């Protein structure tokens, strides 16, 4: 893989890893759903100049149900769950539990599209979920059980979305799918976003966090993600999952003074090891 694609992959991991820190900062002032609604509208607006071009606009026909499905399960629902979770969880926990989407994708693919699973992949799943159990326990002061479950449900949504694309939308232009799903998600939340907009003006810190989340962490990051898929393929691009929790821990420690406890370090290591083991084996038999 060329050096420039490695750079873009790490940059994408750094940007997405920072998103959990900005969610933590902005959610208390905007509220979870209002923040997500504004984030989606801002991100979607970056795609509109492309989406409204005739060559892309013509590709929407016949794919509206796919776009609606992804607007819910790939953006609106998981974004909202992470925002709610941020109210009672450190940002580093959000980032680590988000990476479990790679494990959920394998499970969903096994049951939904009958994808084969090897014994080595089963071992990876076991290691990864032991890491999740280490993190999600009453003695981990970095999060609450409810927040952790919200993160895991959001990761499951990503897993469902990944398999949905693989099953129904491999031949659909990803720019059209992702771009319109962001805009539709924003429109779904628009009535609530308007009616529940904060009475007290959010701080500059919260506003800048929103702008980063929408314009950079969602809009530009998704454009970079699509670019990587086109150039190096979906499998190699999926390795960004390894960078998200690492950068999430780094940014949380530097800017929010979140402590990297022994439990967090061990849990993160086991989750990433599980993902690595599960994704370095080609399935051979259906178990």
Description:
This protein has 287 residues and is mainly α. It has one domain. The protein has helices spanning 3-30, 32-51, 54-57, 64-86, 91-98, 101-112, 119-135, 145-168, 174-195, 204-232, 234-237, 243-255, 262-279. The protein is globular. The mean pLDDT is 91.
Produce the secondary structure layout.
Elements: H1 3-30, H2 32-51, H3 54-57, H4 64-86, H5 91-98, H6 101-112, H7 119-135, H8 145-168, H9 174-195, H10 204-232, H11 234-237, H12 243-255, H13 262-279
Helix pairs in contact: 1-2, 1-4, 1-5, 1-10, 1-12, 2-4, 2-9, 2-10, 4-8, 4-9, 5-8, 5-12, 5-13, 6-8, 7-13
* Strands, total number: 0
Q: Please, how many domains?
A: 1
What's the overall average pLDDT, rounded? 91
Which range does the strand content fall in?
A: under 5%
Count, helices: 13
Poorly predicted runs of 5 or more residues:
none
Summarize the main sheet: none
Helix share of residues? over 70%
Question: Which labels suit this protein?
Answer:
287 residues; globular; mainly alpha; single chain
Summarize the structure.
The protein is mainly alpha-helical. The chain is 77% helix and 0% strand.
């Amino acid at each position: 893989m060329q050096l420039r694609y490695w750079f873009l992959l790490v940059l994408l991991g750094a940007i997405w890893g920072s998103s959990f820190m900005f969610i933590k900062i902005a959610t208390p002032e905007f509220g979870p759903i209002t923040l997500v609604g504004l984030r989606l509208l801002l991100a979607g607006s970056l795609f509109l100049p492309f989406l409204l071009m005739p060559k892309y606009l013509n590709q929407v026909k016949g794919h509206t149900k796919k776009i609606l499905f992804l607007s819910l399960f790939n953006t609106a629902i998981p974004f909202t769950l992470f925002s709610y979770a941020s109210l009672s969880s450190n940002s580093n926990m959000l980032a680590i539990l988000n990476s479990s989407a790679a494990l959920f994708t394998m499970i969903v693919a096994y049951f939904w599209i009958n994808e084969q699973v090897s014994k080595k992949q089963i071992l990876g799943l076991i290691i990864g979920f032991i890491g999740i159990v280490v993190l999600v326990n009453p003695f981990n002061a970095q999060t609450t059980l409810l927040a952790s479950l919200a993160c895991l449900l959001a990761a499951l949504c990503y897993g469902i979305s990944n398999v949905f694309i693989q099953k129904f939308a491999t031949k659909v232009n990803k720019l059209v799918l992702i771009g319109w799903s962001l805009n539709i998600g924003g429109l779904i939340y628009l009535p609530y976003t308007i009616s529940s907009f904060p009475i007290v003006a959010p701080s500059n810190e919260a506003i800048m966090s929103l702008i980063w989340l929408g314009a950079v962490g969602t809009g530009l990051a998704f454009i970079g993600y699509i670019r990587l898929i086109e150039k190096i393929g979906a499998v190699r691009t999926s390795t960004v999952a390894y960078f998200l929790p690492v950068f999430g821990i780094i940014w949380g420690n530097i800017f929010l003074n979140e402590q990297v406890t022994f439990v967090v370090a061990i849990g993160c290591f086991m989750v990433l090891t599980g993902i690595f083991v599960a994704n370095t084996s080609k399935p051979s038999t259906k178990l």
